[in-house]
User: What shape does this take?
Amino acid sequence: MKRFFLLLCALLSLTVCAFATPLKRSEIRTETVNSKMLSEAISVNVYLPAGYDPDATKRYPAVYLLHGLYGGFKDWVETGRMKEPVDEMIALGEAVPMVIIMPNAGHPDVHHQWNGYFNMPGRPYEDFFFGELIPAMESRFRIIGDKRHRAVMGLSMGGGGSTVYSQRHPDMFSSCYAMSAWLDQPDPKPEAPDDKLYIVRKSVREHSAIQFVIDADEKTLEALRSVKWFFDCGDDDSLLDQSVRIYQEMRNRKIKAELRVRDGWHSWEYWHTALRTAIPFASRSFGTSE
Assistant: This one.
């Protein structure tokens, strides 16, 4: 009887300790990168997986998740609700634990404020992304800082940015997932002399992801083949033809890529569901790039 009583006390003690110990959950942390290149502070939301410990030795792969035109660094968390599905996919083993970085590259006032991921006159955002943002994130967080464990993805303007970044820096990313991607632009006309929407449209035209594939030489094609590519666009999306076109051009040049056309249009409902394919795709691609 005494042994039973002692055993019961021990079990109760363990139960109390278990409930007293707080469960480690994922979190969204807001960071700031003071950019010398852009002469401003850039806000960044960072998803840290459950169990992330800044004092531990474990390191994680990283995904750079980009927003669209009219958007900002809060979009994927507040409107795209990315935290819950990512938590679920990691918990179910559909994706490995990872750090997800969501930097600011835009503003709702597209005519008077900067938007875009490319270098433009007076705003070298691409230089900032590779020269300041990535080094800052990889020094602040426990990230595996190499191509095999780094991915990039995004929606619309961010889908185009992800594609062009992977084309111009194929040594940096294991995979690229482009949702409803803005990959090209007819020659735009300015609505006002200093219209920043004209500037970003012009930059998309100058960085045409489709033309990049068409013009690529064999050395460039070999580099592109080291990246895992996925284009995902709704059947009612005005940008669908661009995703189909780049997929066809990649097939013509023997670059392996995935294309999905699902029911939907240019909307957060579509991009929220796209995450359930995008995150596992990035996870499977970690460690497999050449």
Summary: The chain is about 40% helix and 20% strand. The first strand starts at residue 27 and ends at 35. The beta strands are 27-35, 40-48, 62-66, 99-103, 119-120, 123-124, 150-155, 175-179, 228-234, 257-262. The chain has a mean pLDDT of 91.
